[in-house]
User: Fold these one by one.
Assistant:
Number 1:
Amino acid sequence: EETEPVEEVRPQSPVKPMTATEVKVNVSIPEAAERAAATGADGVGLLRTEHMILSLNQTPEKFIEEHSVDAYIKELIQGIRTVADEFYPRPVRVRTLDAPTDEFRQLEGGEDEPEEHNPMLGYRGIRRSLDRPDVFAHELEAFRRLYEMGYDNVEIMLPLVNDAEDVYRAKELMKDAGIDPDKRKWGAMIETPAAALSVEGMAEAGIDFASFGTNDLTQYTLAVDRNNENVADRFDELHPAILRLIGTVIETCREHDVDTSICGQAGSKPEMVQFLVDEGVSSISANIDAVRDVQHEVKRTEQKLLLDSVR
Ligand code: PEP
Ligand code: MG
């Protein structure tokens, strides 16, 4: 028997509270799947695929050149399956590749990456995917095969979209890849003010869910680099402007029967949990170590709302 690292054995209350708002978990590496599932989370609100790719130590293009397209697709399938198996039938929201060029540049083959003055404002997320549909098609082929294998709990989440146009274009590529968007659950991350203000069009484009990526939404709304310590004190995920954007999105989504969720770090903050539950968010996704606390905060907030409503 192996002993678990210290941070993995934090005591947890044995009783998972029942809540109307779902509480999910973020997973960044497939190896964490078992521990994530053990939290009792209602699913995975964000499965990052970057690690699956970056750990190959080659850019996708380089890996494909040295190995094969099929080997690339199999790497993705393997990573996603590990998590989808652990959670089945609980849903797993898999985000399509979202690494900035400065991270790709560290890899073998990275010298072919564009050199960008502002990688965070540059060639990443859905922008890259739509610009390189040939590469994106391999990711989508991985999803298609997973569906064919019966993983109907897998959902597709698109990062860094700005508007309905991005969503329509991605949807077309899904269809081209043999995925029926009407049969599968898929959605968009709300990470830019433009996205927040365009969610109605995205709903019309057919998204099933909108998920707040508050790490980026905060960075882009407040123009505060999330990795710059000089302005770290200005990185306020609870800034009234952010809350206003989030509130509007939740309201619009409710009118269009679109689920709402948060998968940014702010989802672990009690004040954010209270705000979101109050606004009627469908689910909150938190890091593994924060899930239990969020479950209890959600429960407390729901009870308070109930009491307030009968008072
Ligand atoms: C976010 O931006 O809040 C998010 C969840 O995505 P990432 O942190 O991977 O950019
Ligand atoms: Mg993000």
Number 2:
Amino acid sequence: ATPTAVMVGTGVGASQGVLIKGGQALESAHKVDCIVFDKTGTLTVGKPVIVRTELLTKMVLQEFYELVAAAEVNSEHPLAKAVVEYAKRFRDEENPSWPEARDFVSITGHGVKASVHNKEIIVGNKSLFADHNIAIPDDAEYILAEAEKMAQTGIVVSINGKVAGVLAVSDPLKPGAQEVISILKSMKIKSIMVTGDNFGTASSIAREVGIENVIAEAKPDQKAEKVKDLQASGYTVAMVGDGINDSPALVAADVGMAIGAGTDIAIEAADIVLMKSNLEDVITAIDLSRKTFSRIR
Ligand code: ADP
Ligand code: MG
């Protein structure tokens, strides 16, 4: 394509909310034959809501949620935001201040840790508790398994090294997500889901959206590894993601596409930004590239 055609293509993209960072990104997009999708915030709305709380210790909900929110308020993760939002209902104020959290640590793809009121609080997925040698009791395992079957994500909370509660979070698919995946199929583009979430929840969501290929419990570097593996098998790979944890994969991909509502780090790492945060624009970007680059060879 001529420089003028590329400029026109980039301009048309911008006018439709598809921000293309340079001619190379626009060019690469027409060769894409495989797309790796992140789950949370990419295929799903990314505004998860707490749908169940089970306390496994003698404690009132207000006290429990105060500790959990104080730890999670320091995290940018959508699940953390869901917890803090839910915790507000146990407070009188609209915008409550939470107790101070000391020694806050965010463990990417797993959860958070902090000390609140001199209690050690850990909030996250099962593997985080395995890493800390904290046993998950059978009743907690049962609640987690139930959640996964319903495509919900289970969150475990421990206080001073003992599991104190389990939360279930629901994060529905974005409207039109199924249609996008089926259109991509008709365009002979393979779709894969790569997520840090557990396999049970991930496969329930994948089944709903129509993706057959699922990689779960993937750490950020493993998301990038998957992209590189696919490239090594001959695919031209696009990665679509919204989180810090997606940035290495966004960089590794032939075309990194960030969800506009995503974190700044993902947006910086990407070649294309989908400003409207909808999945249809993955197709808009590829179409635009095909139109720009198929005429002139
Ligand atoms: P995804 O790839 O779907 O965007 P992440 O890699 O960000 O997911 O997170 C993987 C899993 O780690 C989540 O599904 C959740 O179980 C757990 N997790 C991560 N961050 C948090 C947090 N702040 N609070 C609770 N759980 C978390
Ligand atoms: Mg995400």
